[in-house]
Amino acid sequence: MKSWLHHHRAALLDALHRLARAPFATLFTLLAIGVALSLPAALYLTLTNLARLGGQMPAQPEITVFISASATPGEQQALRQKLEAHAGLSKRRFISRDAALKNLASQGLGDVTAGLKTNPLPDAWALTPAASDAAVLETLRKELEALPGVERVLADSAWAQRLQAMLGIGQRLVLILAGLFGIALVAISSNAIRAQILMRRDEIEVSRLIGATDRYIRRPFLHFGLLQGFLGGLSAWLILAAAGVLLAEPVGRLATLYGAPYRLQGLGLLESALMIGGAALFSWLGAWLAASRALSRVD
Fold it and tell me: Which pLDDT tens digit goes with each residue over 260-286?
């Protein structure tokens, strides 16, 4: 066990030495990996922040409940109690038919309303749901429409449905991009390891002559790939962090103009670990494939 640990330590130090021996090449490789990984991660963060922003904007979807003209006072009172006690509503505002008519007149339609002999507008409730999910809004609309004394229910849920559809497309796109860049990371690591094996061909042949196994010879290259992927994932995290700092002020200023103070959310601890760990894993896989293939061709 002590010998095994010693060799792993030696292989890791060898990988660090080879990375440090070519600083410019290492820097550009890590930047290439970081940029490649930051693209799907940035899209993921954009979707996450859009989903959060959709629930914080003041322009929440609104449901309008029109009361039937034939509704009895008992039905209207029961409807009021039902709406005030409903847990799925965050705000409730009663709009009388007279208030609705005055509102129309104040909006420049005074000439039209002045010619009316009777008020054709019904009493109504303007409701703000606690959730903006399109499926929840549709369920709530059907529930309210079935109440006694209700003539019609209008739910402003079209924007929520469009937002969910766009977020669904974006999530699929994140998965596709993550898969493509994962393959690209395997290719980058494979090319780097293949070049190293070709440069160390004589050393590998001597190691085999003295009885070294392929596993023993392959180990330094695997550590190199693992370390390269880890540092590439870390560079992607730093790129995203820098982008978040640069965008925080203009995004906050724009959100303030809409009356909804907002702060960009970056990658959490688990998400950061998954990105960096995934980069290390894909790079290790590329190193293993390249080392195994190259060693099979070395006589």
Answer: 566 777 787 888 888 888 888 888 888
CA atoms within 13 A on the CB side of 256: 7
Q: How many angstroms separate the CA atoms of 124 and 129, rounded?
A: 16
Q: Which class for 108: exposed (0-12), middle (13-18), buried (19 or more C-beta within 10 A)?
A: exposed
Residue entry with tokens 């847990």: 87
- CA nearest 12: which of 227, 282, 285? 227
Domains contained in the chain, CATH given:
2-56+162-297 (no CATH), 63-156 (3.30.70.3040)
In the chain, the amino acid numbered 78 is: A
Residue 218 amino acid letter: R
**pLDDT digit string, tens, across residues 38-81:** 888 888 888 777 766 655 544 467 788 888 888 888 888 888 88
pTM: predicted TM-score of the whole model, two decimal places: 0.59
For residues 192 and 15, give the distance between their C-alpha atoms in angstroms, rounded to a whole number.
12
